[in-house]
Write a structure and sequence with these properties.
- The protein has 396 residues and is α+β, with helices and mostly antiparallel strands.
- It is built from 13 helices and 14 strands.
- The chain has helices at residues 29-43, 68-75, 92-106, 145-149, 158-168, 173-189, 192-195, 228-233, 263-269, 296-307, 324-334, 347-350, 357-371; strands at residues 12-14, 18-19, 53-57, 83-86, 112-119, 125-128, 139-142, 205-208, 214-217, 252-259, 277-286, 314-320, 375-383, 387-395.
- Strands 1, 2, 3, 4, 5 and 10 form a six-stranded mixed sheet that branches.
- The protein is globular and about 55 Å long.
- The two termini are 17 Å apart.
- 54% of the residues are buried.
Length: 396
């Protein structure tokens, strides 16, 4: 359990998430993320020179990713600092935040910055030499779609892991559709009063359309209206499966940024010093092969147990569970109402840019807890390779 690591209230942002092959499809995710973080810091009157270390989370290769963290630091105005580039599929943000908090806990640094960026659109195609192939042919892979469709360990697609958990636990198509509809309704709650909730944390991105024109994206792009009737008309993605396109997430593009620091500095940097956000604990797990959806529960249990907290004490629960069955399984295992968490939506609705997804969910959880007067915030999310990461925070 950590005791010294805090996040300044308001010391974070999430960009809008843009649909696959949408407005951000041609932007280098590192450049876009660093430029967005720089503009965000300027809007908060924060000097990038105060930063000491950068955790860059990214899962989809971009030009110059070899230089990842140091290039991003240079672009956001902190070219004096080193950093690390971290890839852990959908758990990337979770682990970056925890690693930054661990550094603060040990006194290694006071002002690390987490920047998680990804662009699923126009994913790179890697070509590998195969000298032993006929005529020296090459081997290739699509960095995004091939990886969604095949785990070399489990020998299956990601959606198959959710179907495996659903079959083993008797989860039905009707349950999955009901959760998908509920998540959409929760998401629309965040749009009320001219997007009042989203505006608490969302920061626009700017795209250079031409030499004289800049396009500003201020809200999510690609959210599909969901209705009970519409869901019922969709066909399962796999034969005899329980998931349709409506009951799973979709690839997207976006980025998030977050400051992690000491309690005293968090108060100084906070938009409301009366609100404290403490990073308490982290959990992880790897489920049996081909059962990724089951990994989130033990990861969350680890995070809760390390802090001596019961899930019943969590004021806010947020998940990155890209398939409805994941949330249903988690709710059954913990004995909680599947319709009662992920308020204001989840990645099933607003999409999944990989690296930044968990970060946005955590940020939304902080804001929800602050609105509710404080409490524990539990985040849990699955990740490729039948793994999961969890983070427990306390908003007070």
């Amino acid at each position: 359990m950590l005791t010294k690591a805090y996040i300044p209230y308001g010391g974070y942002y999430s960009s809008p998430f843009a649909r696959w092959q949408g407005s951000l499809a041609n932007e280098n995710a590192i450049v876009l993320g660093a430029n967005t973080a720089k503009r965000w810091m300027e809007s908060k009157n924060l000097d990038p020179k105060m930063l000491e270390y950068l955790f860059l989370g990214i899962t989809v290769g971009q030009h110059y990713v070899f230089y990842g963290s140091t290039w991003a630091a240079h672009l956001l105005g902190a070219g004096h600092i080193p950093g690390v580039t971290l890839m852990q599929a959908c758990s990337t943000s979770t682990t970056c935040i925890f690693q930054a908090a661990s550094g603060v806990e040990t006194g290694l640094y006071t002002h690390p910055f987490v920047l998680a960026v990804d662009r699923c659109s126009n994913g790179p195609h890697t070509v590998w030499p195969n000298p032993k192939g006929p005529g020296g042919q090459v081997e290739s892979e699509d960095w995004v779609m091939d990886h969604f469709g095949f785990d070399p360990s489990a020998k299956n697609a990601m959606i198959q892991t959710a179907e495996n958990v659903a079959a083993e636990n008797g989860i039905t198509r009707e349950e999955c559709d009901a959760v998908a509809l509920r998540r959409y309704q929760q998401y629309t709650d965040g749009l009320e009063d001219d997007r009042a909730f989203q505006k608490r944390y969302m920061f626009p991105v700017e795209v250079q359309v031409s030499k004289k024109k800049i396009s500003t994206i201020e809200e999510d792009e690609g959210v599909m209206e969901t209705t009970e009737e519409g869901l019922s008309r969709l066909k399962p993605l796999l034969p005899n499966g329980v998931h349709t396109f409506g009951a799973q997430t979709h690839p997207a593009d976006g980025n998030i940024g977050m400051l992690v620091t000491t309690r005293d500095r968090a108060k100084e940097l906070s938009k409301d010093p009366a609100v404290e956000v403490q990073v308490l604990s982290y959990g992880y797990h790897r489920a049996k092969s081909g059962f990724m959806a089951a990994a989130v529960v033990p990861a969350c249990r680890m995070a809760l147990e390390k802090a001596g907290v019961d899930i019943a004490d969590a004021k806010v629960i947020k998940t990155h569970n890209p398939f409805s069955a994941n949330d249903i399984f988690m709710a059954k295992e913990f004995g909680i109402d599947v319709m009662g968490f992920n308020n204001y939506g989840s990645s099933i609705v607003f999409g999944h840019p990989q690296g930044p997804t968990a970060g946005r969910c955590i940020i939304e959880g902080i804001e929800e807890a602050a609105m509710a007067g404080g409490g524990y915030v539990l985040f849990g999310g699955c990740a490729a390779g039948d793994t999961a990461g969890a983070l427990l925070l306390k908003v007070g």
